[in-house]
Design brief:
Distance between the termini: 27 Å
Structural class: alpha/beta
Order of helices and strands: EHHEHEHHHHEHEE
Strand content: 15-25%
Helix content: 25-40%
Number of helices: 8
Strand order of the largest sheet: 3-2-4-1-5-6
Number of strands: 6
Bound molecules: 6-O-phosphono-beta-D-fructofuranose
Largest sheet: 6 strands, mixed
């Protein structure tokens, strides 16, 4: 069975500042990861292989996938854009905890169903938004790399690994890590890699 690789984008300016959402570019460390990720994939799938690469339409994923342009077939999905945090976009987690304590507590209490105010999304909303991607992901007959975002990859990973929706919003999804999932009859085999090492 063909594997599904997933990786978050390289570290962004907002990751470094602890800010929610936004559309920030990569830091120098994030750009190093982008180059290493491309090298890592090329060691497994030489240029021109049938590896499909899917990513979002955001700046940080665009910069992460940039070294792979012309190497693989890259598709950008708007459905893969990060969870939209509405009014909290661009704020730090610390600011929200201090100045919007009610909202902060509400999200902590029920992260799956908490919907950010100001037309924002919940993880539950993201599940629904990702349904077409999950459908195509299962139909895809070639190896696949998804360069995504923390919340997005938690949802796709939870789906493939059959975690409950409740578990999904707190699953570990670190930066600068590649997760390889190989679908089996009832779940997926799993391997983690650190292309920077
Ligand atoms: O911190 C990076 C990030 O991708 C944010 O843009 C996004 O709001 C967040 O992760 C999602 O993770 P959590 O649901 O744990 O806040």
């Amino acid at each position: 069975p063909r594997p599904i690789f997933m990786s978050r984008h390289g570290e962004s300016e907002f990751n470094m500042q602890g800010r929610i959402g936004g559309n920030a570019p990569l830091t120098p460390a994030g750009r190093v990861y982008a180059a290493k990720l491309c090298e890592f994939m090329q060691a497994l799938y030489p240029a021109g292989s049938d590896l499909a690469v899917w990513t979002s339409t955001m700046v940080r994923t665009g910069e992460t996938v940039a070294p792979m342009t012309g190497v693989y077939d890259v598709v950008k999905w708007r459905a893969l854009d990060e969870i939209y945090a509405g009014k909290m976009e661009g704020l730090t987690y610390e600011y929200v905890a201090q100045h919007m304590a009610g909202e902060y507590e509400a999200r902590k209490t029920d992260k799956l169903n908490y919907r950010y105010p100001g037309r924002g999304e919940s993880y539950q909303d993201v599940f629904i938004r990702l349904e077409p991607v999950m459908f195509e992901m299962l139909r895809c007959r070639t190896p696949l790399l998804i360069i995504g975002h923390q919340a997005i990859l938690r949802v796709l990973y939870a789906y493939l690994k059959r975690h409950t929706p409740q578990e999904c919003p707190t699953l570990a999804m670190p930066l600068h890590t590649v997760i390889k999932l190989t679908p089996r009859a009832y779940s997926c085999d799993e391997e983690w890699f650190s292309p920077l090492e």
